[in-house]
UniProtKB/TrEMBL annotation:
Residues 13-38 have a biased composition (Polar residues). The lineage of its organism: Archaea, Methanobacteriati, Methanobacteriota, Stenosarchaea group, Halobacteria. Residues 42-52 have a biased composition (Gly residues). GO terms for molecular function: lyase activity. It comes from Natrialba magadii (strain ATCC 43099 / DSM 3394 / CCM 3739 / CIP 104546 / IAM 13178 / JCM 8861 / NBRC 102185 / NCIMB 2190 / MS3) (Natronobacterium magadii). Signal peptide: none annotated. This is Pectin lyase domain protein. The keyword Lyase applies.
Length: 577
């Protein structure tokens, strides 16, 4: 058995303003233990802390038979967990997914107040035990202090119409960080089930991390709904990590649709940077699937899971209006699939609301994601492939951008590795910006783009940002790509601008209100493609002065080639239309 540790009010020491760092993604809450009830959290969750304080070790847990139900769990409650109607106290409780527990504790029978008048924390402390499920029948349960349990082999908390009502910031006893802390990095739980819990934080100055789970083997979290804006300024509703590389977790239908308020506007101002994160998994080294989750606008990222170890699978779900990024993932082979991301609201403190951000990983995959941005700003890219992303694939993703500010679509950072964009479409109708921007780079890692469609009437600003595709990397490849940039209110937009060398474009179609195809690199090849301006007085191709060996083969080019002084131009079997 794991060493069960569950000190009474013993929490970590440090400063609460370091929950996460947006650059490094270091996570809070796994520092050393000093045994003080009023200690605060350290923000560099390295997971190497050692118990140096007065935590109580559960060396002699209360004796309970494997076939005993504590405090007489109700037959209805047991049946809800998968037992037949004839189940009795002599049977082993079995959850419907097959996970069995020695004991089931009906929390009302154990003394928890289901009317929300008295705190349930003392009851939680009294019934804590390994191999035990805590069953919350329908009702409201007031909780004003953290419940901590670590080192267990198997533990469950299940609600059947249950609503937790946290105390507000001012009334919460002890460190104002969490309702449930289940496992820590240096003493994780083995298997955890947590499901069927609503959390009512609609009262003013209320909001707290509902669950922080650090688990070695198996994590199951389902059907947790947080109602009300998180306006206390403390940590956001969920934090999850698998500590074993072979550990597997699922977080399904975890919902916090009302988001959170910036810490500077809360009672915790000055003690935390930005404010709560929706869901955090930055210390995970195993595999966690986030399925059909929903997050509203949080001030410091929505789903934030960028550890380079482990893997993350975001399967479906809805994510809206978070600052930083709405879905931010790293890891090995991590996937974002079938999700919906919408940015339609920008608060005064939101300075970057990226839809999907990829970093710290290899073979990261975005597949069949729908992104809508109607509240635009230049740093709110639809998909960001960051410098620390070593390889990625963006597939069949739909992006729609409209608004009165500059906004970019897919942006590949200068030091990002191999990037493959396959299928999908970008409708870009912002006041300016690049629907697809491959930033200037000296890296040799290829960007491969296939079967992508770019359209929409975008604008142009004083800073430019007028190209449908802006490519500043050498050795890129474009195949069966379509770009149509007619220009918003008659402004001049270009189809594609090449600033890198040795790029090949095959079977592409470029149309624009200004120049469809601009070559400002060397050794670039346009083949079997169409380039035609909406302006009949402009050429379909423009070659900048000083470039060397541009090649144009078997193309249809509207109104000819505007050669401003290129060297060694190669043309073969082109049709001028």
């Amino acid at each position: 058995m794991r060493n069960a540790v569950h000190g009474d009010g013993c929490d970590e020491t440090g400063t609460s303003n370091a929950d996460t760092d947006s650059t490094t993604g270091l996570s809070a809450g796994n520092g050393d233990v000093n045994g003080t009830r009023n200690g605060t959290e350290i923000g560099i969750g390295a997971g190497t802390g050692t118990g140096t304080g007065t935590e109580i070790q559960n060396k002699n847990p209360p004796t309970r038979s494997r076939r005993t139900f504590l405090q007489g769990a109700s037959i209805a409650g047991i049946a809800a967990l998968g037992l037949g109607a004839g189940a009795t106290g002599s049977a082993t409780a079995v959850h419907e997914n097959g996970e069995d527990f020695d004991n089931v504790v009906n929390m009302v029978d154990a003394g928890a107040d289901p009317t929300g008048q008295e705190s349930i924390t003392p009851v939680l402390e009294s019934v804590r035990a390994d191999n035990t499920m805590l069953l919350f029948p329908e009702g409201e349960y007031y909780i004003d202090e953290q419940f901590r349990f670590t080192g267990f082999e198997k533990f469950g908390i299940v609600g059947d119409g249950a609503t937790l009502v946290p105390a507000n910031y001012h009334d919460f006893d002890g460190p104002q960080f969490r309702l449930f802390r289940l496992g820590v990095s240096y003493n994780p739980g083995g298997n955890l089930l947590f499901e069927g819990i609503d959390v009512d934080q609609t009262a003013p100055d209320t909001g707290i991390r509902v669950i922080e789970a650090t688990i070695a083997d198996q994590l199951e979290v389902r059907d947790v709904t947080v109602r009300g804006e998180h306006d206390s300024g403390t940590w956001g509703p969920g934090m999850f990590a698998m500590t074993d590389p072979n550990g597997e977790g699922i977080v399904e239908r975890f919902r916090a649709p009302d988001g959170g308020m910036h810490a500077d506007r809360t009672p915790n101002a000055g003690n935390i940077w930005r404010g709560p994160i929706g869901i955090e998994a930055n210390t995970n080294v195993g595999h966690i699937e986030f399925k059909d989750c929903e997050l509203g606008g949080f001030p410091d990222n929505g789903l934030y899971a960028i550890n380079e170890e482990g893997s993350i699978y975001v399967n479906g779900g809805e994510f809206r209006n978070s600052n930083g990024a709405n879905v931010r993932v790293g890891g090995q082979g991590s996937v974002v699939r079938g999700a919906t991301v919408e940015i339609d609201r920008t608060r005064s403190y939101d300075n970057s609301q990226r839809a999907v951000r990829l970093e710290n990983g290899d073979e990261l995959h975005v597949d069949n994601v729908d992104i809508s941005i109607t509240s635009t700003q230049p740093t709110s890219h639809a998909v960001s492939v960051m410098n620390t992303c070593h390889s990625s694939r963006i597939e069949n993703t739909s992006i729609e951008i409209s608004g009165d500010e500059v906004n970019h679509g897919i942006v590949v950072s200068p030091d990002a590795g191999y990037t493959h964009v396959y299928g999908g479409n970008i409708v870009h109708e912002a006041a300016g910006g690049y629907p697809f921007w491959i930033r200037d780079s000296d890296k040799d890692d290829q960007v491969l783009v296939e079967l992508l469609d770019i359209s929409g009437e975008a604008g142009v600003t004083g800073a430019g940002f007028r190209d449908g595709i802006r490519c500043g990397r050498n050795g890129c490849r474009f195949s069966n790509v379509s770009v149509d940039q007619p220009g918003r209110n008659g402004v001049d937009r270009n189809g594609i601008y090449l600033a890198g060398d040795d790029t090949t474009l095959y079977r592409c179609t470029f149309r624009a209100s200004q120049y469809p195809y601009i070559d400002n690199g060397s050794g670039n090849l346009l083949r079997n493609s169409t380039a035609e301006s909406h302006n009949s007085n402009l050429e379909g191709v423009r070659l900048y002065p000083g470039i060397d060996s541009p090649a144009l083969r078997v193309n249809e080019i509207g109104n000819g080639i505007d050669d401003l002084g290129a060297s060694n131009v190669v043309t073969w079997r082109n049709t001028i239309v």
